Amino acid sequence: MAKAVAALSLLLLVLYISSGGDSAMANEQKTWCVAKPSSDHATLLANINYACTHVDCQILQKGCPCFSPDSLINHASIAMNLYYQCKGRNQWNCDFRNSGLIVVTDPSYSDCIYA
């Protein structure tokens, strides 16, 4: 019986969070937006173009900390995260036509610090 109550409580919590009732919790926990690994090249390019028309993507330029590795998925993830952080860490700011993924593990590496 106790397991059933615990499972039901967990299910209700998940439903509450997924319905948008997590605004206070999401703002307390640091989150980042990255590109889904399954995203195709055209989508990644579109995401970079969209995000970088709204936020400063200078850190992606050659010679800057986040240029390397010079890969489309890396650059898209950084641009998408810049947009997500600047526009508000809301689910809809990481959707990018269902090609964005909100993560709770910091994707920063080397000298490239995700904001």
Q: Approximately how much beta-strand content do the residues carry?
A: 5-15%
The ordered H/E elements are HHEHHE
CATH C-level label = Mainly Alpha
| Morphology | globular
Largest sheet: 2 strands, antiparallel
Count of distinct structural domains: 1
Strand order of the largest sheet: 1-2
Mean pLDDT: 84
> How many β-strands, per DSSP?
2
How helix-rich are the residues, as a percent range?
Answer: 40-55%
Briefly note the structural class of the backbone: mainly alpha
Computed Rg: 17 Å
Distance between the termini: 45 Å
CATH topology: Methane Monooxygenase Hydroxylase, Chain G, domain 1
Tell me the number of helical segments per DSSP (H or I, 4 or more residues long): 4
CATH architecture: Up-down Bundle
Any low-confidence stretches, pLDDT <50, length ≥5? 1-19, 21-26
Membrane topology: Lipid-anchor; GPI-anchor
Pfam families: X8
Main location: membrane
Keywords: Glycoprotein, GPI-anchor, Lipoprotein, Membrane, Signal
Primary descriptors:
mainly alpha, Methane Monooxygenase Hydroxylase, Chain G, domain 1, disordered N terminus, X8, signal, X8 domain-containing protein
Describe this structure in words.
Its main location: membrane. It is a lipid-anchor; GPI-anchor. The radius of gyration is 17 Å and the shape is globular. By secondary structure, it is mainly α. It is built from 4 helices and 2 strands. Mean pLDDT is 84; it is low at 1-19 and 21-26. It has helices spanning 2-21, 23-28, 41-54, 72-87, and strands spanning 32-35, 100-103. The N and C termini lie far apart (45 Å). Helix 3 (41-54) runs parallel beside helix 4. It has a single domain, classed as Methane Monooxygenase Hydroxylase, Chain G, domain 1, CATH 1.20.58.1040. Helices cover 49% and strands 7% of the residues.
